[in-house]
Amino acid sequence: MGAEETKTDIAAELWRETAVTVAKQGLNAARALLRQHAIEPYQGWTEAPRKDRGDQTHWIDAEMRDVMSRLVAEASGGGAIHVGEEEQIPMNMVGGEVLARTDELDGTTNALTLFSSFAIVVFIERVRSNRESVTHVAGAIAAATGEVTSWSREQGGKNKVLIEWPAPFSWEDEGGGESDATGVVVPKQLLLESDHETEVAAALRPGTLGRLASNASRHDRRLLIGEAMGRALRQEDDLWLSNAGGNPVIAPLLAGELSAVYEPKSLELHDAAYIVPLYLAGGEIWSPHGNRIDVLRQFQKLGSRREIGPFVAGTSTEAVDRILEALQRENATP
Predict the structure, then answer these.
(1) Strand 260-263 to strand 211-214: parallel, antiparallel, or no bridges (unpaired)?
(2) Which of 323, 314, 320, 302 is CA-nearest to residue 128?
(3) Could you write out the DSSP letters of every residue in 258-289?
(4) What Å distances lie between residue 174 and 25, 28, 31, 212, CA to CA?
(5) What's the half-sphere exposure (Cβ side, CA atoms, 13 Å) at 57?
(6) ∠ CA 15-21-23 to the nearest 5 degrees?
(7) Per 3-state DSSP, what percentage of the chain is helix, strand, and coil (rounded to 5)?
């Protein structure tokens, strides 16, 4: 094991805490900007560069990019290089340098339209000595509803995945008004650990088998639900099928409420961030053709565009098989 990997082992938990700090503070900033968007005259679209994919960039995206850059610098003490969703990886990276990649507001349209169903994503990676790949160290996903899923990955040791549910809401915590709270309430937590040296998987809850989700862009989801999944699963009486997907579903997956998610298209790293903690916690990630996906290997290349998918991600082989079999039946339909 080289010096860089050893340093990663020692720092993994500290970087997880850094990612949590950035994600939580980023979530608070997003909420504040959404309130501003709601109560002030509508400001419309920004002149910021258009995203390569997805919807047009909103002024909130530009604001959040600046916020997250500042938060990364503060939380890491300048020890991490911030790379936003639409930014290019800096040239001439040096082995051992740390990247903090973020999706500053994953689900901007959801956030603006519903004030919910969005997430803040933080990935911590260390550049390897070959300067062509990275080692994934830690990360965090803060959902709009307040729960924060975080993880750390040790080389050759334990992987830690933690869900933190927020304490009861308090206006005082949000920066205004009086609070009836009589004391500090410790958030509830769910800890999952796995040990790759002994191949002991985390005690991942299997998930409610009939609860599935299928993710797609707003332009595709009607066809996706109606054709690719609807006919194939119409005889399944216990089925609950949602068109929700993406990073906000990680806590329901790990908590055992949702059993699997079908992603019908390739996604970039920040949009598929949730499968990293699911994978580290012992989850199953497979291609629609029935091949197991090595998630970390897919994400280790040092490049601005890293994609994975299509895939089925689930809490158990039974949940994944249910979708794979449904897709096979659909493909066999004349």
Answers:
(1) parallel
(2) 302
(3) --EEEE-S-EEGGGGTTHHHHHHTT-EEE-TT
(4) 11, 8, 9, 34
(5) 17
(6) 100
(7) 35, 25, 45
| CA–CA–CA angle 229, 233, 239 (5° rounding) | 110
Task: Kindly give, in sequence order, each residue whose CB lies less than 8 Å from that of residue 35, ignoring residues fewer than 6 positions away.
Answer: none
- CA–CA dist 248, 165 (Å, integer): 13
Contact 320, 312 (CB under 8 A): yes
**Global pTM value:** 0.83
Structural domains for the chain: 3-195 (3.30.540.10), 211-332 (3.40.190.80)
Tell me if 218 sits within 8 A of 283, measured CB to CB.
Answer: no
Q: How many CB atoms lie within 10 A of CB 74?
A: 13
DSSP 8-state assignment for residue 290: S
The single-letter code of the amino acid at 297 is R
Contact 215, 262 (CB under 8 A): yes
Average pLDDT on 178-192 reads 65
Contact 102, 109 (CB under 8 A): no
Residue 212: count other Cβ atoms within 10 Å of its Cβ: 25
Which amino acid is it at 313?
A
Give the model's pLDDT for residue 68. 96
Higher pLDDT, 178 or 138: 138
List all residues 6 or more positions away from 160 whose beta carbon is below 8 Å from its beta carbon: 13, 16, 151, 152, 191, 192, 193
Q: Could you tell me how many residues make up the chain?
A: 334
Residue 69 banded pLDDT, cuts 50, 70, 90: very high
β-pairing verdict for 311-314 and 260-263: antiparallel
Between CA 139 and CA 125 the distance in angstroms is 9
Distance CA 153, CA 281 (A): 11
Query: What percentage of the chain exceeds 70 in pLDDT?
Result: 72
**Residue 70: pLDDT band with limits 50, 70, 90:** very high
Question: Half-sphere exposure of residue 232, counting CA atoms within 13 Å on the CB side?
Answer: 19
* Cα–Cα distance, 131 to 312 (Å, whole number): 31
